[in-house]
Amino acid sequence: MPSTPQPAEAARRPLAASAADDHASSDVTALLRAWGLGDLHASEELVPLVYEELRRQAKRALRRERVGHTLQTTALVHEAWLRLDGQHDSRWESRSQFLAVAAQMMRRVLVDHARTRRALKRGGGGTLVTLGDATNAAAASDEVDVLALDDALARLATMDPRKARLVELRYFAGLSIPEAAAALGISQATVGREWAVARMWLRRELEP
Q1: Measured between alpha carbons, how far is 30 from 95 in angstroms, rounded to an integer?
Q2: Structural domain contains residue 183
Q3: Tens digits of residue pLDDT in 86-145
Q4: Domain range holding 105?
């Protein structure tokens, strides 16, 4: 039977995990910067380091879609990656920034997908999504049309760009409050307050 870890040993484990995470993040940042400078090999090395995180983002985003959505996780990741690749010469600063841009790409993919479905249905009902919490089931009253949400976010961006970006991160990429805080460079407490305000504003804007 394994022995109980001593306090000093137990204390070292989170530090070791944190150091490993920091190292991995530094690797991603270095590769992103090389990619932005035109190093095509950096892209090949970057994919395995970020692919699982992109899949997690895609799964969380699609979890908010109501029954009947035809876009799959892998397809969303691949389409978002193609759009990211189109911006490979951007000035990448960090892993958090990259994931934030990935959230933008996933938003565009989901919105384009919803527009295509609406066109195929010749003006039929839109794609319903929920404004509920990213990890919990939402009430039916939280359901909104994804295209109406996209339009409302565009209006919010003209008034408060950070809140619009926060909704994009929380909603379209499903980032947690700590992840969104890291991507935006603000405290978790600020994210919590602004997320609540943004959701209230969106509900008011999206009322029928």
Answers
A1: 9
A2: yes
A3: 776 667 778 888 888 888 898 888 888 888 877 776 655 555 555 554 444 333 345 667
A4: 7-205
pTM for the model: 0.68
What stretch of H or E contains 124?
none
Q: Which two tokens stand for residue 109?
A: 């993919």
Residue 53 domain-assigned? Answer: yes
Q: Does the residue 65 lie in any domain? A: yes
What kind and span of H or E run contains 130? strand 128-130
CA angle 92, 18, 28 (to 5 degrees): 20
Q: Which amino acid is residue 118, in one-letter code?
A: R
Q: In total, how many domains does the chain have?
A: 1
Give the three-state DSSP class for 157.
helix
What does the block give as tokens for 10?
A: 């137990």
Q: Is residue 54 part of a domain?
A: yes
The secondary structure of residue 90, as a DSSP letter, is S
